[in-house]
Design goal:
Layout (H helix, E strand, L loop, with lengths): L1 E7 L3 E2 L5 E9 L5 E11 L7 E7 L2 E3 L9 E8 L4 E8 L5 E10 L14 E11 L5 E6 L4 E4 L10 E8 L3 E7 L23 E5 L9 E7 L7 E7 L6 E9 L11 E5 L4 E6 L3 E4 L1
Parallel strand pairs: 2-10, 18-19
Antiparallel strand pairs: 1-3, 3-8, 4-7, 4-9, 5-6, 5-8, 9-10, 11-14, 12-13, 13-16, 14-15, 15-21, 16-20, 17-18, 17-21, 19-20
Length: 285
């Protein structure tokens, strides 16, 4: 017996970015699967584009388990009861809609006994990711380290700010959304003032919401005004149950700005704030 899933990662990609998907296999049986296979077919992928697959068992990366082409194929050995296999996939989309359909199987001939013996197949289903053309949004799956994701970078009276993510870690989904319908939470405290903002919220999502060991950057270009500080609104996943949290992001040290993260620098000529941070959330300055 097993539980399998297939989901887009993220749900939408913007022009120039990769479509991503995640499929999982959880062994809920009482016996070890000696050999486990995954086959994933795709639609809407560019044959001349990028193909990427990465696998983890119980959070530990498994090198060489998956092909780097379509149809994607992966194989694993000795999947014990309770083991979780996670496979992330990404490819260059060829149009406005992409899909990934996954099938997990164990060694032997398929049977119809409800998945209680070896020789079974498990249909992970089909997930769909779509192109999102909203100029306030950008997103996709980042294969290489130090990648960037940027929405419309031209600021004006009708587009008060532009947001770009930089120095992204490898193998993660990343999205950014700003503009009047972007959201965040600001609760006044003795250190946080929720008045005097010059910009809008920039919603940032990188990975699964975890805190990364090294910083990535959130670069916000303003049409007018100078932010004095930023409020960072986020879900604190370090406690159970998770809680809504907020922090004040202030100026970085002049030398080695990243060492002061979370913090920000300001360039008055370009009207750009560069926030150095370790995790997701919404930012407003």
């Amino acid at each position: 017996m097993a539980t399998v899933t297939m989901n887009p990662l993220p749900a939408h990609y913007s022009a120039g970015n990769l479509a991503g998907f995640r499929t999982t296999y959880l062994n809920t049986d009482t016996s070890t699967i000696s050999q486990l296979f995954l086959s994933v077919t795709t639609t809407g992928s560019d044959p001349a584009g990028v193909y990427y697959a990465s696998a983890r068992i119980n959070g530990v990366t498994v090198s060489g388990a998956c092909s780097q082409s379509t149809p994607f194929a992966c194989s694993f050995r000795n999947i014990k009861p309770g083991y979780l296999v996670v496979v992330d996939l990404a490819f260059t989309p060829s149009g406005a809609t992409t899909t990934a359909t996954g099938t997990w199987s164990s060694n032997g001939a398929p049977t119809s006994d409800g998945g209680t013996s070896h020789g079974d197949t498990w249909d992970a289903g089909t997930a769909t990711s779509t192109l999102r053309a909203d100029p306030d949004y950008a997103g996709g799956f980042e294969v290489a380290a130090n990648g960037e994701v940027a929405n419309l970078q031209l600021v004006s009276a009708s587009n008060l700010q532009a947001t770009r993510l930089g120095k992204l870690p490898a193998g993660v989904p990343a999205t950014v959304h700003d503009g009047p319908d972007a959201t965040g939470v600001c609760t006044p405290t003795t250190t946080i003032s929720c008045t005097g903002f010059v910009g809008e919220w920039s919603e940032v999502s990188v990975g699964d919401g975890q805190t990364f060991p090294s910083v990535f950057t959130v670069i916000i270009t303003f049409y007018k005004g100078t932010p004095k500080a930023f409020v960072h609104s986020y879900v604190d996943t370090s406690v159970v149950p998770n809680v809504q949290a907020e922090e004040l992001v202030t100026a970085c040290p002049k030398t080695d700005p990243a060492s002061g993260a979370p913090c920000f620098t300001w360039d008055s000529k370009t009207k750009q704030a560069t926030i150095y941070t370790f995790h997701n959330g919404s930012y407003k300055g």
